[in-house]
Amino acid sequence: xxxxxxxxxxxxxxxxxxxxxxxxxxxxxxxxxxxxxxxxxxxxxxxxxxxxxxxxxxxxxxxxxxxxxxxxxxxxxxxxxxxxxxxxxxxxxxxxxxxxxxxxxxxxxxxxxxxxxxxxxxxxxxxxxxxxxxx
Length: 135
Prior knowledge:
135 residues, alpha+beta
C-alpha cells in the first residue's frame, strides 16, 4: 500500500524511467501520490478539460487517453494530466502564419491559388487544425 492505494504486486515506474509517447506525457511528471490503479477508473471530474488522463501500460509506458477506459492492453495505472495549452487564435497571428505557409509554394501556385488556399487555411484555423508550416 502506497499513499493509501494498493498497487498489488508492482508499482509503475515514474515517467522518467520509461520512454514517453506524447508531448503531454513528456512534459508532465506525475507525483507518486497521484498515481492510481487502473482497477479504480478515473471519474470525469478527474480528467482534464478534454476528458483525458495519463495511462501506464506495462511494456509500453505512459500514454494519454480518454478517462472512460484505457485504450491499450496491460494498462495498470493512471494519473492526472494537465489541460492542453490554449491555442492563440488572433487574426494577426493567423494572417502571419498564412503568409509564412504560402512561401512554401512556388510563385505560380501562390498567384493562382491564393484565394482558394486562404479560404481553406482560415477554415482550418477556425477549427484549431493549423497546417504544418514547417514542412
